[in-house]
Here is the input.
Amino acid sequence: MRHLPPLSALPAFEATARLGSVTAAAAELGRTHSAISKQLRHLGEDLGGALFEKDGTGLRLTQRGAQLQAELRPMLDRLDHVAQLLRQQQDQRRVRLAVSATFATRWLTPRLPRFYAQHPDVEVDLLMSGPHRDMRDTYDLILSYDRLRGPLRDTRRPEILGDTSYGPVCAPGYPLVQSPEGWRAELRLVHAGAPQSWDAWCRLSGVALRATRESAYPHHILALEAAAAGLGVAVAERRLVADDLASGRLIAPLGFVHVSNGLQAIVTPAGETSGQHKHAVRAVLDWLRASVAEENAQD
Here is the structure.
């Protein structure tokens, strides 16, 4: 049976021995002076004598303390090396995926259990993306579905995951009026992050849908919820409202306009930093592509 010294006191000893000061060790470790002193005293008592002695305004190691430092330093260096390797391995299995809150909530998150069943060794961190953020150094993979917002602002060639389609949605019975000039609604619901989406859909579809007024929402999912509540009409990618359409909570009175290769992803330099990391990113991409293809085959 091992009779080890109090392990929690070893960082306090190492820092004090290296810095020559209890005050400096306390500052580095984020502890109080008295807490470090207490640990050093406890460690010395366990090992049979003082580990430090006064040296002017500082401290110096006793022979006992120097012997402990000589043994402890290489052990801590090896432990630090092993810890870095283990953390790196964990990071290589983790994929930091940038995705909009609406797409994550409405489509991706309910399907993630299927991914983990196939890839239990990979962890996916969902982090919210947005047009105002520089995502290249923060994420490994950037997922984009909203071609009404515009193309991906990136010089790398995107990974094509599947097609998309877009159309106006509203609650059953919401009044849409058709005239020779096109369609008209009382209220168009707008995602504040993509105010151009309605005009882009009108150009894409060749259908005019004007409104007496517009109301902007900070998140697309809020605009969709407002539409389901009967407040107005919103424009959406079909995947985001598929369950609502199936349940009758929303209808798509003008149908959807198809866009080839609309669901895209960008692998950032961070996502390509190592072979293992790239393998985890590739697993996510292949699963996304297969999931989209499977759903398209069922439609």
Remarks:
- The longest helix spans residues 63-93.
- The two ends are 65 Å apart (CA to CA).
- The longest strand covers residues 159-169.
- The chain has a mean pLDDT of 88.
